[in-house]
Amino acid sequence: MSSTNRTAIRHDNDYYVTPLQTVADFFSVFRLLEPTFCLAEAHILDPSAGGDANSPMPYPSYLSSIGNRTVTTLDIRRDSKAAIKKDYLQWKSQRKFDAVITNPPFHAAIAFIQKALSEVRPGGFVCMLLRLNFLGSLKRKSFWLQYMPKWIIVHARRPSFVKGGNDSVEYAHIVWQKEYMPEHSRLVIILLRTVKNDATHSY
Question: Would you kindly state where each structural domain of the chain is located, as residue ranges?
């Protein structure tokens, strides 16, 4: 997803290329926060995998770089590099995953989160890249009361989803763990870009 100003034209299916650096930053911090979760061996679903003729699928590309060969990729777009071309909200999984990790379309983010939580094993993770202002709005109050995240990992540096500059709002990877319902979320702020899979962070 990306924020759009009043004069901008939205991409088809709310598609914007997630920066590889943003993905690397997130995974570097996630691995520090959840050291017992082995990303290289986990069965992971990316239901909005993206990618096209000019760009790779961001999350699967990182996972492949650390040796994960079990990522299931799905996308509604026919020009995506995903293995499965389906609408995630209509797709029926035949298995439970260790994690669902993606940048969902903003208009369907809550539906993506709820469906993803139903498709991970107990103790599994759901990680979504969302605008930081997704945390606001009274209309989402009932959602937060039912689905409190474990981690809110804020990217202090605004990602660039399109060529020519950074986005106009801040983003966070919000992380839920199935059957773990904390009273409050823990905040992590990524202050600098990662270097060689290491990150400067605060929590």
Answer: 13-202
In words, the CATH class of domain 13-202 is alpha beta
pLDDT tens, the chain, 203 aa long:
444 433 333 344 455 789 999 999 999 999 999 999 999 999 999 999 999 988 999 999 999 999 999 999 999 999 999 999 999 999 999 999 999 999 999 999 999 999 999 999 999 999 999 999 999 989 999 999 999 999 999 999 888 766 545 557 899 999 999 999 999 999 999 997 654 444 444 43
pTM of the predicted model over 0.90:
no
As a three-state string, the secondary structure of the chain is CCCCCCCCCCCHHHCCCCCHHHHHHHHHHHHHHCCCCCCCCCCEEECCCCCECCECCHHHHHHHHCCCCCCEEEECCCCCCCCEECCCCCCCCCCCEEEEEECCCHHHHHHHHHHHHHCEEEEEEEEEEEEHHHHCCHHHHHHHHHCCCCEEEEECCCCCCECCECCCCCEEEEEEECCCCCCCCEEEEECCCCCCCCCCEEC
